[in-house]
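Researcher: Please predict.
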Amino acid sequence: MANMSLFASILGRLPKANAVNEAGGLAYQLEPKHALAQVAATGTFNNAFYSTAESQLDEVLKLIDTVDDNQYLAKLALYAREKAFMKDMPAALLVALSVRDTELMHRVFDRVVDNGRVLRTVFQMIRSGQFKNKAGKSRVGLSSSVQRAFQRWLNTASVGKLLSASIGNDPSLRDILRMARPTPKDNARRAMFGWLTDKSIDKWAPATEADLPVEVQSLIAYRKSESEEAQALIAGGLDIVRWDLLSDAARGPKVWAVLARKMGPQALRMNLNTLLRHDVLATSAMVDYVADRIADKTEIQRSKQFPYQYFAAYLNADDNVPQKIKTALHKAAEIACGNVPELPGPVVIGLDTSGSMSSPVTGNRGRGATSKMRCIDVAALFAAAILRRNPASVVIPFDTSAYDVKIDPNDSILSIAQRLAKYGGGGTDCSLPLVVANQKYARRKFAGMVLVSDNESWVGTGRHGSTGVMTAWEAFSSNQRKLSRKAAPPKLINIDLQPYQTVQACERTDIMNIGGFSDAVFNVISAFLADNNQRFVAEVEAIEL
């Protein structure tokens, strides 16, 4: 008779944990491509609860060296920018490509560098000397190939895009122009480059001040205006000039009211406190305008905004921001829920409320720059959004205890998220929501489970050297298969909000690990539950270059 302690059938389904996570708990190591995708979709090169900015950079560089697939790096750079809406990570991948495959770097450069901020980030990363070629030599300047990419961007960018790129310093657009040395395509561009680099007009020859684009000439006139009324008049006609390029010289509330009307819905949402500070919200007419723009249903549906954006604005809004505008944020979040896909069936939502989830979701960036949006806020919003679109689902908050919470799916999504975010604060046992589901909802059918966490489970272990999550998932999955009979088997989706490289459940046909907190995550979850096997790495590799 075979030794049942060694050859029990469950062993084939419970792989031993092969790593230890940052919190000291058993975990599974992601394979390099997946680990790099996880970091690219969540990392910000800022201090997190269990990692520093320096350690993140070190891990990214090691992973890039490990992934010997330049096409994958190029696709991941595009995924991180276009799907996960990250800024620093796609820039880092682009710089890595610049020392490994310049042809691929050129193919994706203009899509990754879609604005001046990313351009400056790429430039600064190159100057840092952190990225090395296979011979171990650091790049600290622009090679001829990279220089051509910068020159192309600078010569093809619209006037509005160049003006937007001039916002910010260290490095400034002036620094970039002086090192990239683009050859102007005409006198208008020659005058533009001369003005942006603060060269005296006689050095623009054969271009003159008259060759400057009309928008730049109007901007100069705006900055020289001595009255609030004159500024407001000029600002109203500067259609392609971003409001924040005008704000530093604005002379009063009348000008700021004009700037507010130049802002798009997202800029308004992000700058409510600025508008309050400059007395823009002192009149009912402007309050009505801002509220209506923020909650514009057509715009929200067109831009496919995720409720996260409105929750962040709500958390950051000053107490004196008018209630009508705060109500508009609630309304906008409700509309944005329509952009979240409906899942094939109800799910169990495991919501990590442990102490580490109180850290800022984009890392600590120093006083005044750190986001008020914590990991727990994002996780709670994910849970609320899923619950709103799939009201038969169940939310189980947990740390080292599972919390019994009754949520009305018809409540405001921001109210649900705020309520859920108040639970917990202790250690982490990611198996608990599955354990509770096995005990409390054993007779209910679910399409699967969505676990939203930073994956730093360290309390409790599983059977046969597995993690607690894997052991509890096996019991949950087995019970669901009995209930469903011939229906599709349940799926486990583990959403990781932080740039760590270990997970609590290993990748299999019924388990997917995905990183990030953009609306793209919802589409991957929906496809996976619908049995499309759309996995995270496959999602990246599906990007067309």
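Model: Strands lie at 19-20, 26-29, 347-352, 394-398, 448-453, 491-496, 502-503, 511-515.
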